[in-house]
Amino acid sequence: MLNYRANEDYLDKKIILITGAGDGIGKQAALEFAKYGATIILLGKTVKKLESVYDQIVNNGGNEPAIVPLDLKGATKQHYIDMGNTIIDQFGRLDGLVHNASFVGHLGPFGQMTEEDWHAVFQVNVHSQFLMTQGLLPALKKSAQASVIFTSSGLGVKGRAYWGAYSISKFATQGMMQVLADEYEHSSIRFNCINPGPTRTNMRAVAFPEEDPKQIKSPAEIMTPYLYLMDNVASQDNGQTLQAQ
Ligand code: NDP
């Protein structure tokens, strides 16, 4: 995978939805996929950020993206059903879905974690992924080859003190991906995870204020597995967790 080189326009005519597309890794993935010809559905919380990514894609000569302003914290099952129906109406299908947005929440001792903290993190990192995947399955099934990417973390492989709900939610993300990959093994949809590794974003800066951002990779430097998993050459990859670093 690390030697993978994307061919020009290899995502031509592909429709890809990215959550948390306004900033960090999700924004970079949106710009990259658009560069290779995809039409991007930009989903996120802050409309201004989504509009800025929209402008960058259009200014770079990419296809006109769609913007879906949605706070995953408050979204209901009906939001995702409506989203799936709108995508089918407007685009006919969904070829790619990147579950990228997530919420770190309050870091601290397990004994002091409140129910509110727990629910808020699980709502964004797990529950919304469950409902969104379910709501978008009909659109994904209409693609000849669809790729769904979840975003894991080293903290979803080995739990770490004081990372409570976030760390546990990343185990759940990994589990959801594996359940789906097994269930859809003989279908046209593949499900995989990417662990980005330490990456220079706002989330990272808030979680690791003592870290020198210059010492870690930028989102642009970790894009290879994202580009690879969206490519039909990865059609046999299912149930995998790729390390971006
Ligand atoms: P950023 O904070 O830079 O970007 C996260 C994006 O998700 C933002 O655009 C944010 O929107 C959006 N988002 C957050 N909460 C919601 C919500 N409730 N509803 C809709 N959108 C929301 O984070 P990263 O790019 O660093 O992280 C991307 C993924 O990578 C996450 O899943 C993270 O867990 C994972 N990861 C990151 C690592 C790192 O070192 N950066 C390491 C390991 C994993 P807005 O800007 O509007 O708030």
UniProtKB/TrEMBL annotation:
Pfam family membership, one: adh_short
Keyword hit for Oxidoreductase: yes
Entry keywords, A to Z: Oxidoreductase
PROSITE patterns: ADH_SHORT (PS00061)
Keyword Oxidoreductase: yes
Similarity-based family: Belongs to the short-chain dehydrogenases/reductases (SDR) family.
Name assigned to this protein: YciK family oxidoreductase
Originating organism: Paraglaciecola aquimarina
